[in-house]
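Support case: user asked for a sample of complex input and structure output to validate their parser. Sending the pair below.
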Amino acid sequence: MRITQGTFSYLPDLTDEQIRAQIQYCIERDWAVSIEFTDDPHPRNAFWDMWAMPMFDLKDAAGIMGEVQACRRAKPNTYIKVNGYDRRYTRQTVALSFLVQRPKVEPGFRLDRQESNDRVVRYTLHSYATDRPAGERYGDVE
Amino acid sequence: MTSSNQLDIVPSNPSDPSHGVGSVGVDLTAAYRDSNIDSLLDELDRELVGLAPVKMRIREIAALLLVARLREAKGLTTERPTLHMSFTGRPGTGKTTVALRIAKILHQLGYIRKGHLVVATRDDLVGQYVGHTAPKTKEVLKRAMGGVLFIDEAYYLYRPENERDYGPEAIEMLLQIMETQRDDLVVVLAGYQERMETFFHSNPGFHSRIAHHLDFPDYQLDELMAIGDLMLGQQQYALDADARRVFAQYLERRMHQPHFANARSVRNAIDRAKLRQANRLVRQGGTVARDELARIDAEDIRQSRVFAEEESAGRRVGGSRSDSNGHAPERDVAKGPPGTVDPPARRPADPPRSR
């Protein structure tokens, strides 16, 4: 199941050229760009791992693209996203966030129903990937 | 100068038969005009005095890039030219200024994407402990991407006397980036000629990766005067006729003293003259006319220590002072803005200048 998370997620995966253009857009708006990766793609997982420092004093996307490539090399089978953080007072939020890599196979989610009191049903999204321990979820061994 | 040099780039015969004939010929004149490079080069001529060999080389590079672009448009294979440079010259000969201009020109010609200049010295690149150097160098390189990385006094990266120095690590990263990411940044190394040569000698990788070695000659007296005029004009000051004469005398004496830093010394001399002029005006009191505020007179310059010292030394000044025992006649002379500092202590022992 193809996970749709962040901006552009209903489009086909962005090419490197498109990614570079998006990063350049962030830089031109003076947003701090950071790279994060995870192997736990649950939509409520807000704690992705950071790759390198957030980059806020660059003029050109080349430096950040270099980091994206380095992250891809080091974490070939994880989700990687690029965030653009707008630090302006009154906004102070991630203004753009999009995936730049996804694992080859995405097993998707299972819906768990929990019978509760008074015929109440609680729903849980369970990621098949997280059945395995972190680091082995997407068959990291090449 | 401009018009004659243009001929090197623009075909002299506009009615050339191949002129603008679609797939057959390329309109070089139009391409040159469209690139808007002329205005930048003219600005270079206007605002930088002297430096004829440097300007010539910049024109050549501009022409090369223009032709490369046209070749590309016509489907001819074009190897992306290497533009890493080394600037050698004594302090104050305009290395940083030219680097700034080159960044702009390369941007205009589409060679680099942004056209900013990042100035770095050893301290910005080399770390203090194991594992500190790589991230530091990488940070600077990332910041410089899309523009020009200017490494001032590059020879300090390599310190042969300390084998545990982290400099070589930074050099290795630089070399790698200079080779693999030529599209992303242009590296300019700057410093004194002799020490740069030693540096290149011990790091042959650098020498071969740098295509352009530009030597910045020292300024002559008339060029220094022109620089002074330019600086004063920008700050809306003016020398009167008498002051001009004294200023020329001042520069002539200053040139033969130790720690002379070319244009930077001129700027400092002007700054001090402005100081004395302000002091004179305040002491004088009363109402001051507008042109009085802009005028620097001979006395403002004659009060300089360069003249005072000469009197006290009983007029012993000849062409050269060989007793350059590190005693600077005006101590603040060698100081420039950050990034361009040439501390007297780090200067190589220059032979006394005889001119």
